[in-house]
Design goal:
The protein is of the alpha+beta class. Helices cover 33% and strands 23% of the residues. It binds zinc ion.
């Protein structure tokens, strides 16, 4: 599902990246090392370091800042070029603000491609003088047994096996829901489910009565599932939303490759994306990320349907999202 808030970040990210990265090569990429992703740093002049890419002629370091006004949209802050022999960059005073969130990534320029390729995207927050303390979530005591016939047993099993915390929000997870989720997670590769850390059950959302689930771009490893979503198509909507977690947690490159293969930006000024071939569902026509989420959903919950409709989308999901696993 797409919210107004995450729509803008999708748009920015894709305007920034999709039009620029034509060859996508996961083999040549300079992934960030430190600050580690999600780190809260106590300095405004950190040193960024990244993994050396043997083919690098130059590195192009990009930084985006989360806007406090515009729906949490990440806007472009600046970039810096470094020689291929350097793998660090000290941020100058006056660049970063306290109590703010940043994204950064490194583009490698090599001998064969001046366009190069981006490594993973990392996120950090500054907190030199924190405005407020984040309340600690009390950790519920997990029952030792992995009894799959009880709610507590399934909660513990999902946490232990998949690293996902099932949260009761404004509604509670029921035994039958947890069974569906457990069985769905059992099928999919760790590369995919590891991008999701929390599945929160809520009754409704102010985003709209028709919203079955959503992911907030500011907290991209937590999926919210409404009563509508749980009752309508629990497995399908969970997989759809988890695809957004996948897209936002270190897989911009895959999402960009998807966009380049299946969509074309007719107008780079207003970002009017046009699909090259029809997305497999009506909702998938919204934008490239929703198309990908819908295709992954079908791949997991209705594989023959996707295979029949669109072999190229099927093969892309198989290769880049599901690690070759087929259902
Ligand atoms: Zn979606």
């Amino acid at each position: 599902m797409i919210t107004r808030k995450n729509f803008f970040i999708y748009l920015t990210v894709f305007l920034l990246f999709a039009s620029m990265i034509i060859p996508f090569s996961p083999l040549e990429a300079a992934d960030p090392i430190s600050p580690s992703s999600g780190e809260v740093i106590k300095t405004l002049t950190p040193e960024l370091t990244w993994k050396a890419d043997p083919g690098a002629v130059k590195y192009d370091i990009w930084m985006l800042k989360k806007s406090k006004k515009m729906f949490g949209l990440y806007t472009f802050l600046g970039r810096s070029i470094r020689e291929g022999t350097e793998t660090k960059l000290k941020i100058k005073t006056g660049t970063l603000e306290d109590n703010s969130d940043y994204l950064w990534m490194v583009r490698t320029v090599n001998k064969t491609s001046v366009i190069g390729s981006f490594g993973k995207t990392f996120r950090f927050s500054t907190a030199v003088n924190p405005i407020h303390q984040t309340p600690e979530n009390p950790t519920p005591t997990q029952p030792a047994s992995g009894d799959l016939n009880t709610i507590d047993g399934l909660l513990a099993a999902i946490k232990a096996k998949f690293g996902i915390t099932m949260e009761n929000g404004t509604a509670d997870w029921a035994l039958s829901n947890l069974r569906v989720i457990y069985n769905t997670l059992l099928k999919i590769p760790a590369k995919f489910y590891r991008c999701t850390k929390y599945l929160q059950r809520i009754s409704t959302t102010s985003l709209g009565a028709g919203v079955g689930g959503y992911v907030n771009s500011g907290d991209p490893s937590r999926v919210y599932m409404t009563t509508l979503g749980v009752n309508y198509d629990l497995a399908g909507i969970i997989v759809h939303e988890m695809t957004h977690c996948f897209q936002f947690n270190g897989n911009y490159g895959v999402a960009t490759a998807w966009t380049n293969q299946f969509w074309t930006a007719r107008n780079s000024y207003n970002g009017q994306w046009q699909p090259i071939s029809a997305p497999p569902t009506e909702y998938g026509k919204t934008n490239p990320l929703e198309d990908m989420a819908e295709s992954v959903k079908l791949y997991v919950t209705n594989a023959s349907n996707l295979k029949y409709q669109d072999m190229q989308r099927y093969n892309f999901v198989k290769q880049y999202v599901m690690n070759g696993v087929e259902f």
